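Researcher: Structure for this, please.
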Amino acid sequence: MKPAQNSEQKARRGRFVVLEGLDGAGTTTQARLLQRWWKSHLGPLFSTAEPSKGPIGTFLRAAMGHRIVQPDGARLDPKAIAALFSADRADHLATEIEPALASGVDVLCDRYVGSSLAYQGLECEFDWVKALNAPYPEADITLYLRVSPDVAAERRAVRKNAAELYEIDQFQRRVAEAYDRILQPGERVFVIDGERSVREIQRRCREILLERLQGR
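Model: Predicted structure, C-alpha cell format:
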C-alpha cells in the first residue's frame, strides 16, 4: 500500500511566469489583461512586477524616475543600480513570490532576471551581473514580447509620464539586441510578436499558458 499523503504532500506548488520586453513592449498591459482571465482558467494568481513595491523597489523606482540622484545631480552609479535590482529581487522572492508559490498560488511577474541581464548587463560587466543574479530561481515560463526599438519608441512617445532612466532610444536599441541574445526560444522561453494587436498578443499568451500549464 502507498503511504497516505498529508496535506503538504498533496499541495501543488504554484507556477512562476514572467513577462519581458523593451520599455514600450506592452508587458504591463498584457499582465493586466492576463489577471482577468487567469483565475477562471488556471487557478489562483498573484500578479506583481519588478522593481517591486517593497522598500528597495520603491527606492529603485525613485532612482529610475530621476527623483533620487547623486549630490551633484548625476544618476546613481550603474553598479549600484545593478546591485539594488538584485537586492530588490532577493527581497521580492523572500517576502512575496516564494510564499505565494509555496502555497500553491501561481505568480505572474512583469520583469525579472532577464531585465537585469539585458539592461544592467550593458552598463556593467555582463558576467558580473549574471553572477549577481545566479542564485535566483528560473521562471517556469518567460514570455518575451519582442518589438523593434522603433515601435517601442513610438509607444513610449504617446505616454504622458516623463521618460525614465533607461528610456533613451539609442540605449533601447542595444537592449533589444541584448534581449535577442539572452532570451532564445526554448523549453521555458517563448518569443511573441509584440507588434501585433493587443488582442492578438493576449491570445497568444493565453495559448502558451494553457498548453504549458493547464492540468499541471
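Researcher: Any notable elements?
Model: The longest strand covers residues 141-146. The beta strands are 16-20, 45-49, 106-110, 141-146, 189-193.
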